[in-house]
Amino acid sequence: MALNKETIIISLGGSLVAPNEIDIEFLKNFRRSLQKYLFQKRFFIFIGGGRTARNYQKALLEFGAEDKDRDEIGINVSRLNAGVVKQLFSEFSYSKIIIDPTKKINVSKSVFVGAGWKPGRSTDYVSVMSAKTNNINTIINLTNVDYVYDKNPKEFPKAKPIKEISWPDFRKIVGDKWSPGLSMPFDPRASKIAEKLKLKVIMINGKNLERLEDFLNNKPFIGTVIQ
């Protein structure tokens, strides 16, 4: 029964799905990577809005929109992205997109695709809440950087990569504040809850899916472990 399989959550950055337009090649490779494990594991995949959402949010801000309105449009974009990913795994996936991570799902499927929940809650936050609801211990955050760094590598060329870090130390890096479209390794508010739940979060660059497979094969991998 699929319900007895190990279950892992993947928080999939929207900028991997649609950096400018839908990245068909990435999605095909992503499906190819996960299909190797669908008879051994279940995956909850939560999709972010990425750059597309941030572009909309930036435009709304320009015209005086409040955070709630900016959040709503980000949620809508994440659900569009999720619709594509659900179709990607159509024969293996649950028929609905998960939009409420507090509802437990007891369905014998191998893939469950989710998206934005409600204003003030990022995809990372939704992933953590789903972990809590479904008793899942591990979240893989597929992003577009190789590691968590001690500083923002875009601003500080000498920023140091971190391979393993505790939640208290990680939270010192990301702080406590969150705003719509915030670009952080992992949402600060989600991090606070993940620490309380003693979750393991794995940060992996989704542009190199062999690293994801290394992790799923219990091999050494390039990325950061937060626990």
Tell me about this structure.
The protein is α/β, with parallel strands linked by helices. The protein has helices at residues 14-17, 24-35, 50-62, 67-88, 123-133, 167-174, 188-197, 209-216; strands at residues 6-12, 41-47, 111-114, 138-143, 148-149, 161-162, 164-165, 200-205, 224-226. The strands form two sheets. Strands 3-2-1-4-8-9-7 form a seven-stranded mixed sheet, sandwiched between helices. The chain has a two-stranded antiparallel ribbon with strand order 5-6. The radius of gyration is 16 Å and the shape is globular. The two termini are 29 Å apart. 39% of the residues are buried.
Sheet with the most strands, sense and barrel status? 7 strands, mixed
The CATH homologous superfamily is named Acetylglutamate kinase-like
The CATH C-level name is Alpha Beta
Lateral arrangement of strands in the main beta sheet:
3-2-1-4-8-9-7
Order of helices and strands: EHHEHHEHEEEEHHEHE
Number of DSSP strand runs: 9
Strand content: 15-25%
Which value, in Å, is the CA radius of gyration? 16 Å
| Overall form | globular
